[in-house]
Design goal:
heterodimer, A: 327 residues, D-amino Acid Aminotransferase, Chain A, domain 1, 2 domains, seven-stranded antiparallel sheet, six-stranded antiparallel sheet, B: 506 residues, alpha+beta, 16 helices
């Protein structure tokens, strides 16, 4: 029974963690390139150099002595995001969406909770101390622009910032999903933490059914709105930007996380050298077949826009459009 | 390319490890299971005599070729005597010499042997013996007997059997009676038989040996007849003509020379005592390998001091734990804190025993976690906070030990054996996961760690596995090769099968 299921998964082209790690990450992502994605400060610099849109960086705090500069960095800004430069899985990210009107040094989080400046400083200290860094080493804290996310996902998000994750294989976008924060995920767009993932039809930029944990869901658990059928704005641009992520990072197996700002359009939030595999569940299909297809048509000289076009052409989702005739 | 390289390396490691293992197992006879004991017989011959006035020289024939037995060691105990081993015509001889000695003397010679079917009669084929020079009237008698027996036999064996039958007949014919007229002892009878066989050009000799039957305080060597049929030596009971050798018959010396000769002494007495011991098969294999000069033995862990051995018997199980870890994480897909934390916890379980280990570990982590949450409120920097958790863990361990001692539960004392740094790190990691991903994830990873630790403990505690690894450390190469292979395993993890259930299309 076990082998039969493994066989069916194999036929469906589902990628497992071991295969992802040995065949893709270890082969295509040389370790020396990791800092480009693991350190968000570097990622931001590289993306800016390449002319890609990223959330504006307000400041970086790289040691305990600088923690007190937090007030100067934030100045009078109403909203901002504090995140560890080397964090993973959305850990340690603090989204401040506003301030208390009476007390300027008390901040409102995305969840609505008010926290004091002291608490934020402690959080920054923790970040700098390395609590959230992948290696446990000292880290830097980034303070950056808080994205005003596009209302397209307002109905299917509970607080936080929904983002779009695109898996880019050797420069070709292979699969995408929209990650929708839930109450359980505490406003974070991370599937591990309980966010809803919705697959995306690569050719149309339209959302498919969602996945919560490892189960398929049709509706957002908090808002009850339908997850499927939402048109992602500027889909062409998103795919092209994601494809461009390969030029920036040179990582052959890359996850590009993008957000759509109401005013500034899509921008790169971060990139990931070890993107997770739940995207397959969200899309109801395995990655292996798409990767195999990309290997077939791979052209090292193809431009990002050509690669994005190929993804749109090749990776349409086969939806069952059979019409039921009710008697 | 890389894939082949890994497979090649893994194969190489496995082959090297397994061949050394098989060599030690099959050739050097290292035992596969623990407490495999082999009966070892220690035969002690004590030589007593009264010393004369001058210098003394004692010669004792000792075992040379011992079919069915392998010698473990031999030694001699004598006061003030010079000792040497020589090869004489009858085999090995032990010689003790002293310029002068007073009163009655006792010399001991001890040999330890154990049964080994592999030891055959590795003697050379003897030449046909020259016809013995026999005086009349015996010569005629011998000739007649040889002619008669030859008529009634087909080959060497039947010739010997028939000859013995005649020689031991209750009413012997006149020729036999003549020959036996001055053969009163069994040895003399065998001597006569060998002489007749020599006349028939059949190589034969006397063998003297001891029947090993457990503990014997005083036993006598028994004489047996050995006849070469052209291919091999055959043994005959000189009293019955039956071709056989007693069970566990250790051949002490061959030929008709006396067992002992003492120059300068009188009243010589030789006594044999047999003692049966059970020795660990490992020790026997080691001694034997050392005698054969096998290189493998130089790298044996049994040559280390006992204390170091004890350390290694634990350390060598860590690779087993690591292998379990690899299997559970990469092939089954269980979540656990830290890479080797569960293995180290499993090591601690070895001391505390499983049930108490799990209880103590859970209590420690639970208490530590609650205190860690209190510390969180203090907003400490990372390193001081980790140190604080570590100190709290040490204090908790102390308290648990004191409490359980008060309550008379001595097992609680073993809490001190937990690796406290590892526990502190576990608490820290768990609390971070708890805060970031919620209690469910934290508990799941915690339970996963415990599950891996328990599994590793079970495997690391298997006595036969421990013995196997300790006796055959080369098996670590096999484990290494398995780990390398697991490192290139690209199949699904077992838990992924249910994780991706939605994608199987059913």
């Amino acid at each position: 029974m076990m082998f039969a299921r493994a066989q069916r998964l194999r036929e469906a082209g589902v990628l497992g963690l071991n295969e992802r790690n040995t065949n893709f990450i270890m082969r295509l992502n040389p370790r020396r390139l990791y800092p480009r994605v693991d350190d968000k400060v570097i990622t931001k610099e590289l993306a800016l150099e390449a002319g890609m849109a990223v959330p504006e960086l307000y400041g970086v705090i790289s040691n305990q002595g600088e923690v007190k500069e937090f007030s100067d960095i934030v100045a009078e800004r109403e909203s901002f995001v504090v995140k560890p430069a080397q964090g993973s899985g959305g850990d340690g990210i603090l989204v401040v969406t506003g301030r208390s009107q009476r007390k300027r040094d008390s901040f409102r989080l995305a969840s609505g909770v008010l926290i004091s400046k002291g608490e934020i400083s402690h959080h920054i200290s923790n970040i700098v101390g390395g609590q959230y860094s992948l290696s446990g080493n000292r880290d830097k804290a980034l303070i950056e622009y808080c994205v005003n996310f596009d209302p397209v996902f307002a109905e299917v998000s509970h607080q936080g910032v929904p983002d779009i994750r695109v898996i880019v294989y050797r420069g070709y976008p292979a699969m995408a999903m929209v990650r929708l924060p839930t109450r359980a995920s505490d406003g974070k767009a991370n599937l591990h933490q309980g966010a809803v993932g919705a697959g995306v039809d690569m050719s149309l930029g339209e959302t498919l059914t969602g996945v919560l944990g490892n189960e398929l869901v049709d509706e957002h658990p908090d808002t009850g709105a339908l997850v499927a059928g939402l048109q992602i704005p500027q889909w062409d641009f998103i795919l092209e930007t994601a494809a461009r992520g390969f030029e920036v990072t040179e990582l052959g197996y890359l996850g590009v996380d993008m957000v759509i700002d109401r005013d500034l359009g899509p921008m790169i939030l971060e990139m990931n050298a070890r993107p997770g595999l739940n995207i397959q569940i969200a899309n109801g299909t395995g990655l292996a077949h798409r990767i195999a297809r990309i290997e077939e048509v791979f052209d090292p000289d193809a431009l990002p826009e050509e690669r994005a076009r190929l993804a749109r052409r090749e990776f349409a989702t086969n939806r069952q459009t059979s019409i039921q005739f009710d008697r | 390319m890389k894939q082949q390289y890994v497979y090649g390396l893994a194969a190489l490691l496995a082959i090297v490890g397994l061949s050394v293992f098989v060599y030690k197992w099959q050739v050097l006879d290292f035992p596969l299971t623990k407490n495999q004991e082999t009966p070892v017989y220690t035969i002690e011959s004590s030589i007593r005599f009264d010393s004369g006035p001058g210098s003394i020289k004692v010669n004792l024939l000792i075992p040379t070729l011992t079919p069915g037995f392998r010698m473990l060691n031999e030694n001699s105990v004598s006061r003030g005597y010079g000792f040497s081993l020589n090869y004489g015509s009858g085999g090995r001889e032990a010689q003790w010499t002293i310029r002068r000695a007073d009163g009655s003397q006792t010399i001991y010679y001890r040999i330890s042997v154990y049964e080994d079917e592999g030891i055959d009669q590795s003697d050379t084929t003897p030449p046909f013996p020259p016809p013995p020079v026999i005086n009349e009237p015996f010569k005629t008698a011998v000739d007649v007997i040889v002619a008669d027996v030859k008529e009634q036999s087909a080959d060497t064996a039947s010739f010997t059997a028939e000859l013995i039958r005649r020689m031991t007949d209750a009413s012997p014919d006149p020729n036999v009676a003549l020959l036996l007229s001055n053969a009163t002892t069994r040895a003399e009878l065998v001597d006569s038989i060998t002489t007749i066989l020599a006349s028939a050009r059949i190589p034969a000799r006397m063998v003297h040996g001891i029947e090993l039957q457990g503990r014997q305080r005083n036993t006598e060597p028994v004489t047996w007849l050995e006849v070469h049929d052209g291919d091999q030596w055959r043994y005959f009971n000189p009293m019955t003509g039956e071709e056989s050798l007693p069970e566990r018959f250790l051949i002490w010396w061959r030929g008709n020379e006396p067992l002992i000769s003492v120059e300068g002494g009188s009243n010589v007495q030789v006594e044999f005592a047999v003692q049966e011991n059970h020795l660990d098969a490992v020790a026997i294999a080691e001694t034997q390998a050392a005698q054969q000069g096998a290189r493998a033995i130089d790298f044996s862990l049994y040559s280390l001091p006992i204390q170091t051995q004890a350390v290694y018997s634990v350390l060598l199980m860590i690779p087993i734990g690591a292998l379990i870890m690899v299997i559970l994480r990469n092939i089954v897909g269980i979540d656990a804190f830290g890479t080797f934390m569960p293995v180290l916890i499993a090591l601690a379980f070895r001391e505390t025993k499983l049930l108490w280990g799990v209880i103590l570990f859970s209590v420690l982590v639970a208490l530590g976690l609650s205190i860690r949450f209190l510390l969180e409120k203090l907003r400490l920097l990372l390193v001081p906070r980790l140190s604080a958790v570590l100190i709290v863990v040490v204090i908790l361990m102390l308290l648990i030990s004191l409490m359980s001692h008060r309550l008379g539960m001595e097992t609680g004392l073993s809490v001190a054996l937990f690796p406290m740094v590892i526990i502190a790190m576990t608490i820290e990691r768990m609390s971070v996961v708890w805060e970031e991903r919620g209690p469910v994830d934290a508990m799941r990873a915690g339970a996963g760690s415990l599950l891996v630790a328990i599994t590793a403990y079970v495997f690391m505690g298997l006595p036969w596995l421990e013995h196997l690894i300790f006796t055959f450390p080369e098996l670590l190469l096999v484990i290494l090769s398995l780990v390398l292979l697991a490192g290139r395993y690209t199949g699904y993890r077992l838990l992924e099968l249910s994780r991706f259930k939605a994608l199987t299309g059913q």
